């Protein structure tokens, strides 16, 4: 979409289906060029001036139709489409897709195996909390995990509500073997902001890069 015009994705925005398909085609080309097999299909915002409840049905219908189109296109490229709930309490009051429960219901209606849930634990904690149970419940749908401390959205070892060593061990116990995206704003520079990861690896008996000291 047109970010300068206030758009944040188009997949659920009525009347913008042609623009969504055009953007998707471009995203596929970028993804192929860099070898990335997953594309975030952003739902978009409730149209300005519209009542969320009044347009919810039309937006869901648009979302489902666009996601089916996207899934079929991505399947030809052996790619995965991702949908991410973004909290509407702090980050974006107008974003359409807000909770993993809503996302799971949408994915069930779409019914395509190559569409998955992009679960950002920052947004999930703000909207619903109950992270352990939510990770267990929605684990079969998860295609990507993102992390940030709550409420500051900084490094996982910054002060906040979430116990990331526990969460990482839970993900391991569930069998998660995908990427964990660092979707946070570093308090300082990027490299300094990765110090938490070095400390975490050392606490697990690992060296930089996740290699076990015992095997070297």
Tags for this model:
alpha/beta; 216 residues; five-stranded parallel sheet; TIM Barrel; two-stranded antiparallel ribbon
Description:
Helices cover 43% and strands 12% of the residues. The longest helix has 25 residues. With 216 residues, the chain is of the alpha/beta class. The radius of gyration is 18 Å and the shape is globular. It has a single domain, classed as TIM Barrel (Alpha-Beta Barrel), CATH 3.20.20.150. Helix 2 crosses helix 3 and helix 5 runs parallel beside helix 6. The strands form two sheets. It has a five-stranded parallel sheet. A two-stranded antiparallel ribbon has the order 6-7.
Topology at a glance:
Elements: H1 17-34, E1 38-40, H2 52-76, E2 80-83, H3 100-110, E3 115-120, H4 121-127, H5 131-138, E4 142-147, H6 164-174, E5 180-182, H7 190-193, H8 195-203, E6 206-207, E7 211-212
Parallel strand pairs: 1-2, 2-3, 3-4, 4-5
Antiparallel strand pairs: 6-7
Count of spatially separate domains: 1
- How much helix is in the residues? 40-55%
Amino-to-carboxy terminus distance: 49 Å
Contiguous helical run count: 8
- Number-wise, the strands total 7
Give the name of the CATH superfamily: Divalent-metal-dependent TIM barrel enzymes
What is the third-level CATH name, the topology? TIM Barrel
CATH architecture classification name: Alpha-Beta Barrel
């Amino acid at each position: 979409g047109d970010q300068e015009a206030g758009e944040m994705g188009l997949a659920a925005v009525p009347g913008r289906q042609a623009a969504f398909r055009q953007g998707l085609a471009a995203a596929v080309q970028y993804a192929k060029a860099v070898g990335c097999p997953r594309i975030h299909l952003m739902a978009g915002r409730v149209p300005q001036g519209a009542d969320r409840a009044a347009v919810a049905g039309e937006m869901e219908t648009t979302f489902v139709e666009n996601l089916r189109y996207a899934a079929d296109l991505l399947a030809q490229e052996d790619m995965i489409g991702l949908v991410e709930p973004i909290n509407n309490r702090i980050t974006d009051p107008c974003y359409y897709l807000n909770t993993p429960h809503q996302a799971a219901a949408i994915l069930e209606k779409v019914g395509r195996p190559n569409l998955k849930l992009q679960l950002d634990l920052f947004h999930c904690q703000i909207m619903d909390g109950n992270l352990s149970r939510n990770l267990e419940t929605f684990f079969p749908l998860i295609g990507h995990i993102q992390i940030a401390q709550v409420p500051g959205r900084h490094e996982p070892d910054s002060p906040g509500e979430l116990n990331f060593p526990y969460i990482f061990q839970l993900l391991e116990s569930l069998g998660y073997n995908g990427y964990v995206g660092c979707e946070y704003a570093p308090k300082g520079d990027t490299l300094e902001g990765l110090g938490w990861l070095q400390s975490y690896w050392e606490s697990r008996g690992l060296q930089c890069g996740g290699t076990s000291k015992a095997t070297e």
